[in-house]
Amino acid sequence: MKDLTTENITENVHIVNSQCSDPRLRYLFERIVTHLHDFARETRLSTEEWQAGVQFLTEVGQISNDLRHEMILLSDTLGLSMLVDSINHPRMPPATEGTVLGPFHTHDAETMDHGAVLHSDPDATSLLCVCSIKDSQGNPVSDVKVDVWEGDSKGFYDVQNPNRAGPDGRGVLQSDSEGMFFLRAIVPVPYPIPMDGPVGKMLSKLGRHPNRPGHVHFMMDKPGYDLLITALYPRGDPYEASDPVFGVKDSLIVDLSTVEDSKMAAKYAVELGTKLLTYDFVLLTEPEARELRKKNAIEAMEKQQRKVVFHNDLPVPAQ
Amino acid sequence: MKDLTTENITENVHIVNSQCSDPRLRYLFERIVTHLHDFARETRLSTEEWQAGVQFLTEVGQISNDLRHEMILLSDTLGLSMLVDSINHPRMPPATEGTVLGPFHTHDAETMDHGAVLHSDPDATSLLCVCSIKDSQGNPVSDVKVDVWEGDSKGFYDVQNPNRAGPDGRGVLQSDSEGMFFLRAIVPVPYPIPMDGPVGKMLSKLGRHPNRPGHVHFMMDKPGYDLLITALYPRGDPYEASDPVFGVKDSLIVDLSTVEDSKMAAKYAVELGTKLLTYDFVLLTEPEARELRKKNAIEAMEKQQRKVVFHNDLPVPAQ
């Protein structure tokens, strides 16, 4: 390994990295180094551009902390987060599609009872959510841990409040024996992703707007089932077709209605006229999702003219 | 733009980014998004691996500061820095080849006279460097700003000393009217790149050693000439063929000799027996380098079956 040129350096880096004993890590580095080098060769990346990239990534790291996930936001705005979710949680009808986790999920949300109020925001429009969770055969799935979070009536998440005392606009419920859960969220509004950091500057330079269409996040977790990270988007949002993090899918756009039945209002302890969101979530089992992932992985390797073996359920090229 | 799938999301991101008014930035984002997405699709990047990558890049940014350039070190250890240098400073004989800048260059080095002592290190072996700078036609190049830096006898750069009071082991000279310069450096020793950060952990996981072969860095700058960032490596270093940052090239390996002539010892004010490094650097002019870059850029675009136009001397695809 000497006398490296623009053409042979990639092969030389692969040789050095091939000492790695983990076949999966070896494969990941072979592919990332190839793509990184091809990117530089194809664009004739200038020293100034390289420096700007190094500086940009450094700034993205430095502004990040436990409550501000700028690196995830970068991944989101490049469409990578959405892609990784699709790869890891492949769906086929009738399974509910996933979408980006986003940078605002936290692990400190409190457990709440059905019917609980998600937000303390006095200016928000209350939104009763009545949802079911079923498996792909139509059977109710009970005891699913349902993590719900959303921004307030101004479009801000609690973690964006510098004086945040504790979680607000987020909570964790369990689906009941009939796979049902309900809560009082708020009608979501569009909001800009944070524009005061390096990712915001990037979007400005690209001529992109920062506004996400309003949505309520849901994460559904139960052993034996494939984790579902998704969100529901009320129809008609001005940014529905140009989400900066590529999170909207047709199947996740919902028509809100209104509680017009007094029996229903009584059952859920809300006033008549309260806005209503209903949705029937469908989870895949872990084996169903694993089989889909495996099929897709084999196809992806065949596209590269490579034979595949699996290492901890993840594909690596056969030697 | 809706109903994104693993297959169509890349095209959708391109559509959104095509709003960018700068054709060069548009091209860079088209290529980086394509490669990033292809990487995820080819490897079926798992959510855990994606999270590890996000966390890794965040840590690389967070440990970086004015004196510790971990993001550059990452680029170095992936072979990207060497590649970017080769792209931006293409050479053809007799021009001196470039190599990585590395993470230890600073901008606070003091101007020194010829013959000055680079290091205060009392344990080092003195190394007289007597060098010339010529152009590709063999004419001496005077008034070149020559930035020289190297580690100490233990392999540490001054910036790695937490009590650093000012620059040591670095200095800036000017070539004289005959294109000559000389200084008293030290015989360089191999040293490990910093292993206490995320890049060090990465190398460990890849089974790679961290030891760079000993070298002295040189950066040569003069208006009208292509910037030369290079280093010289005394022959026989145990890590000569496995440099973790891919910086060694045959033409940059030098045989050290000894000052055996008393006239020479007197001329350079060193003792007889002092170790001696001589080297004849050859700079390209800016037009020579620009022409080479342009030729290489056209070839790189042809490989992609794209016609090229130039925007601020950098290639972009013709519409």
Q: What does this molecule look like?
A:
Two copies of one chain form a homodimer. Chain A has a five-stranded mixed beta sheet, with no helix packed on it. A four-stranded mixed beta sheet of chain A has the order 4-1-11-10, with no helix packed on it. Chain A has a two-stranded antiparallel ribbon with strand order 5-6. In chain A, helix 1 (9-17) runs antiparallel to helix 2 (23-43). Chain A is an alpha+beta fold and 319 residues long. Chain A is globular and about 80 Å long. The longest helix of chain A is centred in the first third of the chain and has 21 residues, at 23-43. In chain A, a hairpin with a 2-residue loop joins strand 12 (308-311) and strand 13 (314-317). The relative contact order of chain A is 0.15. The mean pLDDT of chain A is 95. Chain A has eight helices and 13 strands. Chain A has two domains: 9-78 and 289-317, no CATH class; 92-284, Protocatechuate 3,4-Dioxygenase, subunit A (Sandwich), CATH 2.60.130.10. Chains A and B meet through helix 1, helix 2, helix 3, helix 4 and helix 5 of A and helix 1, helix 2, helix 3, helix 4 and helix 5 of B.
